[in-house]
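WARN no homologs supplied; continuing
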Amino acid sequence: MLTLPHFTWSRPATVHEALAELAAHPGECLMVAGGTDAVPNLKHRLHEPRRIVSLGGIAELRGIRIEDGALVVGALTTLSALSAHPHVREHFAGVAQAASLVASPQIRNMGTVGGNLCLDTRCTYYNQTFFWREALGFCLKKDGVRCHVVPQGKRCVAAHSSDVAPVWIAVGAEVEIAGPEGRRRQSVDDFFVGDGVHNNVLQSGEMVTRVIVPEASHGLSTAYRKLRPRAAIDFPMLGVAVGARGTRERIESLRVVVSALGAKPRVIGGLDALAAGQALSPALADAIAVAAHKQCHPLINVPYDADWRRDMVPVFVRRALGDAFGGAA
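OK structure emitted
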């Protein structure tokens, strides 16, 4: 049986109280919302905090609402609530679809928007028991000095595994971060960095409070496709998100985001030059799929064949384009 480590527990009632707890114990705290990913990681000794700060009592962080035309989603909103919300389903179908594909219904009922955004990166050599990791010799991400995926590498390449994050990027969403200096907002794309040890910009003492989709993003056609071994439970081997403006007959702008291959989602470059002003023909869909294939290079950071995962990139890009525009691409 895998047991939890010893820690001190606190349950603040406001964002201010949570920030005060983080400030009083710098470097000692782990924030937990739904706990669907954090608790298994605690049992594997991947996280060894002295204090757990439970965010579940902060009412401010819950709920989905429209403010000044923008969609505002609280960090403690469950993935089930996000996937079922009428406004999200109508205007951002890809977001609802991505949330509905996370794990199982039980996990979606507990897992939160903020937790999914801040999900720890995953790797074949990291997500193991302490006994397994000790026998192998630990890794760059936890307790070791060597990456077993890229032995000569100096940076962790554990894979980003959030399903909803790539769609947030595709629709131009922003994340609000609260910290000692107040609150700030930045794009979800810039929220992530390419280092698997800590793949986001959160500093000690900071926390995510909400995700905002600006009013200008309404009217986008969105979609999300997920490759996984089974139709439930599993993390993605590949995720493809699409955010497009225009119609099938004339695309105005296009963003395709591919995730689960590296430490941060990849926005495929050069697509507006290919697609702007064009109709979504089979030839154009093939050109977009080829561009994505050229820019994506999976590593052996998850226990599935990297070449096959790369071959699935153009397949899932075509399918996601078809979903976004209401038919086969």
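DSSP finds 13 helices and twelve strands in the chain.
OK
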